[in-house]
Amino acid sequence: MNDLKKKAQNIRKNIVRMIHAAGSGHTGGSLGMADVFTALYFKVINENIFSKDEDRDRFILSNGHICPVWYATLSELGKIPKEELLTLRKIDSRLQGHPVNHDLPFAELPTGSLGQGISASVGLALAYKMDRKKSKVFVSLGDGEMEEGSVWEALMAAGHYRLSNLIAFVDRNIIQQGGSTEDMMSLEPLKGKIESFKWNVTVADGHDFDQILNAFDQAKKSADKPSFIIFRTHLGQGVSFVKDNFKWHGTAPNDEQLKIALQELEGE
Amino acid sequence: MEQKGIRDGFGNAIAKLGEMNQKIVVLAAGVGDSTQAFKFKEKFSERYIEAGIAEQNMVGMAAGLALGGKIPFATSFATFLPGRCFDQIRQSVCYANLNVKLVATHAGLTVGQDGATHQMMEDIALMRSLPNMTVIAPCDAVEAEKAVLAAAEIMGPVFIRLGRDKQPVISQDKNFEIGRSVLMRNGHDVTLIATGIMVYYALLAAEELEKEGISARVINMHTVKPIDKGAIVKAAKETRGIVTAEEHQVYGGLGSAVAEVLSQEHPAKLRIIGMPDKFGESGKPDELLKKYGLTEKEIAEAARNILK
Questions:
Q1: What is the spatial distance between Cα B14 and Cα B256, in angstroms, rounded to a whole number?
Q2: Count of H helices and E strands in chain B?
Q3: Residues pairing with A150 in the sheet
Q4: Buried b / exposed e across B60-98, counting CB within 10 Å, b at 16+?
Q5: From the list B64, B95, B98, which residue is nearest A121 (CB)?
Q6: Interchain contact, B57 vs A122, CB within 8 Å
Q7: SS3 for B31?
Q8: Which terminus of chain B, N or C, has less C-beta within 10 A?
Q9: ipTM of the complex
Q10: Above 80 in pLDDT, residue B273?
């Protein structure tokens, strides 16, 4: 557990470093999901995801804008050189502002237009089911993203087709660009909505590794329904001036802010 | 002349494809019985995916199926595919450059009585604007079948638009190659370049013009993207002008594509026959084509105007 916490902190440091170097990026959501991504890639996803096996785990980042946390996690795993992280959003870089599949083997398809990665994950899970494959398809969503109608088309289809090999989770930080999700376009009651679409739904604290791992464990065991985990998170977790502050949805730290952020993250 | 439902070309081809290749899967958005996708369902139900009336998710799922090693054919009416799901086609299919095929039936005015909400006349404009997309408008059922088979052979996104109605079969003996136009009739005074059902009307126009001593070349430009530049430039060099004809708006479709080639490569006189920047209405197919000026009369008149 301590090991996971350390990794998550390292990931958080790299997030603020890379977004600072880029001069733009989505700091809040990225920081918020560091714990979930650490658990996901270090304990949950089968490492065959990095192989060319036809039957391997898959992951799609539907909320493509929080790619800094994903790039940083892949780097922590040794899949992306640390120095390369600082090329985020720069021209000719593999690490574009939103993930692109062309040069980055980990990205299945370009995501960033919200509500599309989830559809692709349903199609992928369907393909796997048709071929009786054993692996799982994981997909990450943002809560603001769940305002897109296509998300619900995808959830409806997954429930209809009983895609038990599909595991979706959402960064439920109650924030989107511009403010609280509940002020802008309320999602609650979210759990009930998703359950009514024929999914198994779990709610977990997105900063508690025990809860995170338990939730994924349960999801993996699902036999007849797709699984959805609502991770209750704080936008910007780990950095005091970013935490729960909607202004940090899509803002990059300046030199001074980076310094303070790294100090805080170091101090943990 | 033999009349065949152009959609049947798709139905026949997709059933054949299902037989030939286990990776082929078909998606439908609630109208699989209309698009003829059901012909695939009858034989290969385990590879037929009903998406429900949800075109955005249908296209997204098609992208995911391609990631899972399948060759998906996503189908619906042209108003909804690409109309409803342009962003999914742009981002998840074209930008992703995935091997997804889109077959849209019920394109154009000849949808008839359902009216303008179902008469898509902007699909060619939308689809040809996308990088990595191949755009094909077959002229009849025989060509439609060949086009679908050819689409399965190449890697990458393909959009095929088909009408709803029965059309005369005019392409029986012609070879089909994506990107290569078909010379339906040679001529040296004026060239008529058409796509889809308008190829038949272009041939009728050529016959009418011949009676007046005008020799019209007729080119079937089934592939609007990538367009056969060579044939267009050749026509501009060898004849005195070009008339294009399409069951599509005059802005953004075949006419525009030909204009792009002519103005940049070999300027020539051009007249564009198509839907004159209007929406259609309920009516019988031939009544509608007549009312909105998509017949051999308008094509022939445009040719005469060029030659004045």
A1: 31
A2: 12, 14
A3: none
A4: bbbbbbbbbebbbbbbbbbbbbbbbbbbbbbbbbbbbbb
A5: B64
A6: yes
A7: coil
A8: C
A9: 0.97
A10: yes
A90 in helix, strand or coil? coil
- Alpha-carbon gap, residue A12 to A14, rounded angstroms: 5
pLDDT value at position A129?
98
Query: Looking at residues B97-119, what average pLDDT do you find?
Result: 97
C-alpha distance from B25 to closest chain A C-alpha (Å): 9
The answer to whether B55 is a known catalytic residue is yes
Tell me how far apart the alpha carbons of residues B98 and B104 are, in angstroms, rounded to a whole number. Answer: 18
Measure the CA–CA gap between A188 and A200, rounded to whole angstroms.
17
The stretch B169-190 carries a mean pLDDT of 95
CA A99/CA A93 separation, integer angstroms: 11
For A221-235, what is the mean pLDDT?
A: 97
**B173 — pLDDT class (breaks 50, 70, 90):** confident
Sheet holding B270-275, edge to edge: B182-185, B216-220, B190-194, B242-249, B270-275
Structure tokens at A99: 């993930």
**Distance in angstroms between the alpha carbons of the first and the last residue of chain B:** 33
CA–centroid distance for B43 within its chain: 27
Confidence of residue A268 (pLDDT cuts 50, 70, 90): low
**Residue contacts between A and B (CB atoms, under 8 Å):** 103
Cα separation, B110 vs B116, in Å, equals 10
Q: Give DSSP secondary structure letters for B277-296.
A: S----SS-HHHHHHHTT-SH
Per-residue pLDDT tens digits for A168-219 = 999 999 999 999 999 999 999 999 999 999 999 999 999 999 999 999 999 9
Q: Looking at CA atoms only, how far is residue A203 from chain B in angstroms? A: 26
| C-alpha distance across the termini of chain A, in Å | 14
Per the prediction, chain A carries an average pLDDT of 97
Catalytic residue among B19, B42, B55, B122: B55
- Partner residues linked to A139 by β-bridges: A60, A168
Q: What does the DSSP assignment read for A92-152?
A: T-SS-SS--TTT-TT-SS---STTSHHHHHHHHHHHHHHTT----EEEEEETGGGGSHHHH
The answer on pLDDT for A134 being more than 80 is yes
